[in-house]
């Protein structure tokens, strides 16, 4: 079963299928830009990071197809300072997107990805609990999509004809022993450092590539925990609550896992702005719950 047939079967609203098809239809165009590598623009974004040309191209590709679809009232992108407002009588949805997560890894041929969340109420700042669906596209040895909605999590792999075919459905995250943690160890707070040391002593294996989509996909597949903690100089961590962390936690929780900021479920939070950041612990329930015990010390 291909992605479109799956969505038509799962989603009573034809517009959901249409919206996802619009986004995934841009995959080939985005991939064609990879040969440009990580050429810098000399311009720094709102996060203080130097923009990479391929990020800007991927962003424009997705904004163009979403705007022209007539299905979207708002778009919040990692590459944009403000929420983009779209005018259409058909518009039902709001969309958040990280056009190309991990793009600096392209010259090393490591996996990178696109992160999407969809709000059926048309408001990206209405609260992460209002996410209707979320998915990521992972560009690696395989090009795949992991899609989550109220009915669960499914995985699709692109075939030789460019069509995404269903390979797994009703995915559940196992209790595995992988971990990844962002930030430099010297900058970790004592509670997080003790948590990671405990996992290592219990035989957890480090898996951290610097591409959030790839790292989350490993945790979904094999189990364990991905974290980017509060740091000594960055108490809110590094990752964007609305654009990155919210969609990841939605997908992982629909697969039976858990996502928190160390204290509170991520999906109970309401971002106040597009660039709001948060610490995150996401993965298998037991591993994530244990983090809170150490962070309280």
From TrEMBL:
Q: Which residues form the Fructose-1-6-bisphosphatase class I N-terminal domain?
A: 20-169
GO cellular component terms, semicolon-separated: cytosol
For molecular function, the Gene Ontology terms on record are: fructose 1,6-bisphosphate 1-phosphatase activity; magnesium ion binding
Note on cofactor: Binds 2 magnesium ions per subunit.
Q: Where is the Fructose-1-6-bisphosphatase class 1 C-terminal domain?
A: 175-295
Pathway as given in its UniProt record: Carbohydrate biosynthesis
Question: Keywords on this record?
Answer: Carbohydrate metabolism, Cytoplasm, Hydrolase, Magnesium, Metal-binding
Q: Where in the cell is it found?
A: Cytoplasm
| GO biological process terms, semicolon-separated | fructose 1,6-bisphosphate metabolic process; fructose 6-phosphate metabolic process; fructose metabolic process; gluconeogenesis; sucrose biosynthetic process
* One Pfam assignment: FBPase_C
Q: Which cofactor does it need?
A: Mg(2+)
Report residues binding Mg(2+) 1.
78, 98, 100
Q: Which of this chain's residues are annotated to bind substrate?
A: 101-104, 208, 238
Per its UniProt record, what Gene3D superfamilies does this chain match? 3.40.190.80, Fructose-1,6-Bisphosphatase, subunit A, domain 1
Residues that coordinate or bind Mg(2+) 2:
98, 101, 244
Entry EC no(s): 3.1.3.11
User: What are the transmembrane regions?
Assistant: none
Looking up InterPro entries in the UniProt record yields: FBPase_C_dom, FBPase_class-1, FBPase_N, FBPtase
* Catalysed conversion reaction: beta-D-fructose 1,6-bisphosphate + H2O = beta-D-fructose 6-phosphate + phosphate
- Carries keyword Secreted? no
The family classification in the record reads:
Belongs to the FBPase class 1 family.
PANTHER family, sorted: FRUCTOSE-1,6-BISPHOSPHATASE-RELATED, SEDOHEPTULOSE-1,7-BISPHOSPHATASE, CHLOROPLASTIC
Subunit record text: Homotetramer.
Mind telling me what this protein is named? Fructose-1,6-bisphosphatase class 1
Q: What is the species listed in this Swiss-Prot or TrEMBL entry?
A: candidate division WWE3 bacterium CG06_land_8_20_14_3_00_42_16
Gene that codes for this? fbp
